[in-house]
């Protein structure tokens, strides 16, 4: 298999905002207690090559079972998203994350991750973002983009092999973010769990752990809607 990688598309921020608004309406309608809805993954990074799929993180303070009409859902967000046309994908043993896709896919394609605030997956998304968006790490961001372009022309047996090929660069980013051996080992254990079970989950998590998200925050009711119009430490580079 080859992994399709495309140049940065200036329409990605507006595509995300459309998805974000739809999710916010659905989650409010069904009373899901969400802390924030955020753009993650390489499509959220200005001028970074990416796979043309929107990765969206929905942050909650807890993930606990919810029952509705005799059906038990993994969480109230699970119920709300299922009503909005999303299908849950098995998390493959990775803790504190629920993964969703649209079946069949609709444009723009998207993967949605419901993550527990403070969990290892949420921390990974945030720390990769904060590191790659700092001016002093611009060369690291450019190097990450070059790695992705080099991998785009290679053949891989599966998504796990592709993710492993990015591992050195990803771990360098996290070490720059202050991660020590214990935190990296915790992430590694989560990744191993994720490969164990479900093919669709392997596809989602294998790509999403290689991205970052934007940090501008606009308060809208009970949600923090994260905008991504430019990289905060990269003046003049509009998305």
Give the key terms.
239 residues; alpha+beta; seven-stranded mixed β-sheet; globular
Briefly say what this structure is.
About 40% of the residues lie in helices and about 20% in strands. The chain is built from 8 helices and 9 strands.
| Termini gap | 30 Å
Report on the biggest sheet.
Answer: 7 strands, mixed
* Tally of individual helices: 8
- Principal-axes shape call: globular
Structure description:
There is one protein chain. This protein has 8 helices and 9 strands. Helices cover 41% and strands 20% of the residues. A 7-stranded mixed beta sheet has the order 5-6-7-2-1-9-8, with helices on both faces. It has a two-stranded antiparallel ribbon with strand order 3-4. The chain has helices at residues 12-29, 76-83, 120-132, 138-152, 159-165, 167-176, 181-196, 199-208; strands spanning 34-40, 54-60, 66-68, 71-73, 86-89, 97-102, 110-116, 216-220, 223-227. The model is unreliable at 193-202, 210-230 and 232-239 (pLDDT under 50). With 239 residues, the chain is α+β, with helices and mostly antiparallel strands.
């Amino acid at each position: 298999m080859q992994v399709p990688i495309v140049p940065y598309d200036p329409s990605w921020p507006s595509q995300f905002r459309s998805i974000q608004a739809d999710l916010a309406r659905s989650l409010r309608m069904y009373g899901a207690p969400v802390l924030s809805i955020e753009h993650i993954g390489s499509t959220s990074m200005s001028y970074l090559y990416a796979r043309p799929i929107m990765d969206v993180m929905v942050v909650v303070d807890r993930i606990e079972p919810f029952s509705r009409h005799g059906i038990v859902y993994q969480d109230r967000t699970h119920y709300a998203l299922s009503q909005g046309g999303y299908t849950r994908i098995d998390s493959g043993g990775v803790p504190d994350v629920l993964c969703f896709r649209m079946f069949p896919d609709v444009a723009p394609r998207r993967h949605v991750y419901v993550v527990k605030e403070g969990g290892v997956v949420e921390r990974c998304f945030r720390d990769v973002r904060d590191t790659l968006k700092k001016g002093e790490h611009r060369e690291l961001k450019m190097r990450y983009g070059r790695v992705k372009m080099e991998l785009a022309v290679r053949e891989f047996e599966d998504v796990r092999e592709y993710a492993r090929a990015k591992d050195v660069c990803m771990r360098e980013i996290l070490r720059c973010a202050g991660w020590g051996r214990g935190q990296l080992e915790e992430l590694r254990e989560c990744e191993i769990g994720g490969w164990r079970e479900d093919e669709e989950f392997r596809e989602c998590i294998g790509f999403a752990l290689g991205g970052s998200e934007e940090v501008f925050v606009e308060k809208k009711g009970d949600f923090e809607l994260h905008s991504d119009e430019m990289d905060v430490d990269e003046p003049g580079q509009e998305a």
